[in-house]
Amino acid sequence: MGFKCGIVGLPNVGKSTLFNALTQTATAQAANYPFCTIEPNIGDVMIPDPRLSEIANLAGSRQMIHTRLNFVDIAGLVRGASKGEGLGNQFLGHIREIDAVAYVLRCFQDDDITHVEGRINPLLDAQIIKTELMLADMETLEKKQTKLEKQAKRNDEKNTTLVDLVAQALALLRDGKPAQITNLSTDESEAFQSLNLLTAKPALYVCNVDEASAATGNEFSEIIEKQARNESMPTVIISAKLESDLVPLTAEEKNEYLRETGLSISGFEQLIRAGYDLLQLVTFFTAGPKETRAWTIPQGTYAPQAARVIHTDLERGFIRAQTIAFNDYITYKGETGAKDAGKARDEGKGYIVREGDIILFKFSV
């Protein structure tokens, strides 16, 4: 699995249209009224990677298996959602299960599509979303705080740590700041993650623009990009309408359409790249006659832990990892050529897997 991305935003900003296009389905009903999406829609999509077919051709693989990405389309937030307004906070729990949050912001004018706030202002929209998520986190922590303090009095070291972390996070939230900036030591990170706070999730802005602005952005997206720089948050400019138009096209037709629009890659691919950068993920490959497969792991993963993604036995019985860089694999026409050229390396337990590595794990159980 690549990662799970939650799509959040106010009603009628194009969330469901974007979800339908990204997942190439009509799963999420799209309509011009608030709360059209009530239950979260989940779409599992293949992450395109042209390297996979290049490797598979050289390896003579019978099939290719791409890494995958989950999109979760969550009901539109409104002011007061954390206190029960609109659909209330019944859907906020779904955000807790994701790896990253995409704030979809309306950056287009269309008199035929109403805005729940009666105006087009993506900066204020973003603030409403953040405020509701922060209020929901405050409610969660305040409920936990009393219970944890009682447990900490029994000299429970783990709960003592959590009490301190809850206090730090609450202080930030009450000051209008996300829990994500809580100052953590390495030892505290795991305990903090167990709190599963909405505003601790890595996040990015997705500016939904009109088709004509897909390549260059517009006055609305420029405002968000400026804000994003101040917050050190990534921004993706995407046209949900354009992505929808791409769905029925062939690969050749898509490329021609993108060129005419001034884009080199689709918004979907831009979003994937931004997500991988945000979550600091890398892809490695395994290749053989049966299949060539892409695997996603965090940056900095050691070879035995990368092997565990495939099967726990590979980590338990890890001996070494025969590793070939992607460019060497292509240049020397596959595993045999890379070996003959001295480009196949035997790496041990201390090796950190790199982006694009083709790996054959040797193990004994």
Characterization of this structure:
The chain is α/β, with parallel strands linked by helices and 365 residues long. Helix 4 runs antiparallel to helix 5. The two termini are 25 Å apart. About 5% of the residues have low confidence.
DSSP strand count: 12
Overall 3D geometry?
Answer: flat
How are the strands of the largest sheet arranged? 2-4-1-5-6-7
Could you tell me the strand content as a percent range?
15-25%
Could you estimate the helical fraction of the residues in percent? 40-55%
| C-alpha termini separation | 25 Å
| Oligomer class | single chain
What's the Cα radius of gyration? 23 Å
The largest β sheet comes out as: 6 strands, mixed
Looking at this protein, list some descriptive labels.
single chain; 365 residues; alpha/beta; 6-stranded mixed sheet; 3-stranded mixed sheet; 14 helices; 12 strands
What would you say about this model in short?
The chain is α/β, with parallel strands linked by helices. It has helices spanning 15-23, 50-59, 92-95, 122-152, 157-174, 186-193, 219-231, 240-246, 251-261, 267-279, 303-310, 312-316, 326-331, 335-340, and strands at 4-8, 41-46, 63-65, 68-73, 100-107, 203-209, 235-238, 281-287, 291-298, 318-324, 345-347, 358-363.
How is the topology of this model organized?
Layout: E1 4-8, H1 15-23, E2 41-46, H2 50-59, E3 63-65, E4 68-73, H3 92-95, E5 100-107, H4 122-152, H5 157-174, H6 186-193, E6 203-209, H7 219-231, E7 235-238, H8 240-246, H9 251-261, H10 267-279, E8 281-287, E9 291-298, H11 303-310, H12 312-316, E10 318-324, H13 326-331, H14 335-340, E11 345-347, E12 358-363
Parallel strand pairs: 1-4, 1-5, 3-9, 5-6, 6-7
Antiparallel strand pairs: 2-4, 8-9, 10-11, 10-12
